[in-house]
Amino acid sequence: MIRFSRARVATVLATALVAMGIMSATPALADPPAPPGTPTATAFDGTSTVGPLFRDGLDQHHECTASVVASPHHDLLLTAAHCVSGTAAGWEFAPGYRNGRTPYGVWTVTHAYVDPRWSSGQDPRYDYAILQVADRSVGHRKTAIQDVTGANVLGPAPRAGQAITDVAYNAGIDDLPIRCSVTVAYTDGFPGFDCHGYVGGSSGSPWLSELPGTHLTEVSGIIGGLHQGGCYEYASYSSPLTWQADTLILRATLGQHPDVVPAAGSDGC
Fold this sequence. Notes:
Layout: H1 6-19, E1 42-43, E2 50-54, E3 65-69, E4 76-79, E5 92-93, E6 107-114, H2 116-121, E7 129-133, E8 136-138, E9 141-143, H3 146-149, E10 153-154, E11 163-168, E12 178-183, E13 185-187, E14 190-194, E15 206-210, E16 217-222, E17 235-237, H4 243-254
Parallel strand pairs: 10-16
Antiparallel strand pairs: 1-12, 2-3, 2-5, 3-4, 4-7, 5-6, 6-7, 8-9, 11-12, 11-15, 13-14, 14-17, 15-16
């Protein structure tokens, strides 16, 4: 996912046409300004439950972000549905990835599960996916990913004003994750937040917060949903997570009918 507004695309196209002499120079269009006081995400060393997804091996650029979500078999990831196409089998997930290192190993995706309303019509309210990963040998024992990294508990959509921290990987290679701690607001029924720095690759990144009175971390959203996450780099959204997201975990746990996911269409920006 690369969240370019129509204005930004128009600017790039106009610049190219001017360079070719096809049209005369005109004032450049620009994204609308961010709200005053909008923070900027910062790089850090990462967390064990969040990592980038690699479609074509670790020597190629990673794309979207995913996170380990708590499940009975300890083998599931959460990401955005618009990040997924086909079965996703063979994709690789590197939790805690930093500067090209994989401190918690590399885990191979086997199956993908999405809501039928995403498969049939790419309804942005259901822009989330569960990926199942294979166990791997750790110390000569078959081990599930959650037993190595821990996991975040899938929670309901955040309330307006709730504080969350989004951990993401923008598309690239040999890099660090970014994070931003913000409060949630709603736009057209979609939870969202404002923070500079979330561009292509940040889709699927989890909105994390501590569950009061526990040692657990909850994921209450992921970048996706409205305009597949947003049209501007400073504005990010999520599908409102409901009980339907839990049904994907149940389907994966029971091994019921993994999906062949259609490629995402236009983000509408």
